[in-house]
Amino acid sequence: MPAEIVASRPASTILLLRDSAATPGEIEVFMMVRHHQIEFQSGALVFPGGSLDRGDQEIAKSPAFWSGGEGLDAAALGFRIAAIRETFEESGILLARPRGSTALVDAKRAGEIEAASRAAVCEGKTSFSKVLADNSLLLALDELVPYAHWITPEGMPKRYDTWFFLAAAPPAQAGRHDGKESTDSIWVSPREALEGGNSGRFKLPFPTTRNLIRLGKQKSVRCALDDAGGRKVVTVMPVMTRLNGGRQLRIPLEAGYDGEVFEVGALG
Asked: Does residue 237 surpass a pLDDT of 70?
């Protein structure tokens, strides 16, 4: 009898970008090292993100908590809200605007909100919607550009239906890991992250590697956002087969990852 297929959990992640000050013509992305005792992707270098929760859907129902999401359906709103919430929980970076302002919350104010509320949100002692209400903030949903959509292959014990978004990092918000789910955080160019994956310095999951390769073709944050905005997002659910003791993954060629069949030692 075939094994039961595990349902995939909705999840979101953000690739926060900034132009490299050290290397003109390169961009940097915020990444974190997952704690080695975390069950999923332990020790991996990943982008901030995580599963949708009930609070995200409640925020989606109330336009008083967000801006720039007009015209999106409930599911799309939920993915974007979860992406911003998870990024705040995991990095402290906040993509939101003060009510009545067109500018993102400044770094000083974001730092004060992070210091006062981040731990409480992570621990479930307060809700993200309460943080927004208490600080008169609107989530800046229009800052997110859909970049990729990956679904964990059937047959895996844990499966996620994940939307990846690009966003320019708010000015002067540097971000830092939480010390619990993640043990380190860095701003790194796609080139350096991939070199680290090849050398063994970093453990890179397969989707992370493919997205870093694609992102590394862009010379600036503006170019990356414009390129993503002009593309249709093609859903990727790798089909996995065994090959000579390793694994072979097949993904849609039209997804834009410069290939259709990839040989990997482990899916990650």
From this structure: yes
Cα–Cα distance for residue pair 168/11, rounded to 1 Å = 20
First to last CA, the chain: 26
Residues 93-149: tens digit of each pLDDT: 999 999 999 999 999 999 999 999 999 998 999 999 999 999 999 999 999 999 999
pTM exceeds 0.85, yes or no: yes
Please report which confidence band the pLDDT of residue 181 belongs to, taking 50, 70 and 90 as the band edges.
Answer: low
Pick the CATH number of 9-235 from 3.10.290.10, 3.90.79.10, 3.90.78.10, 3.10.50.40: 3.90.79.10
pLDDT category of residue 39 using cuts at 50, 70 and 90: very low
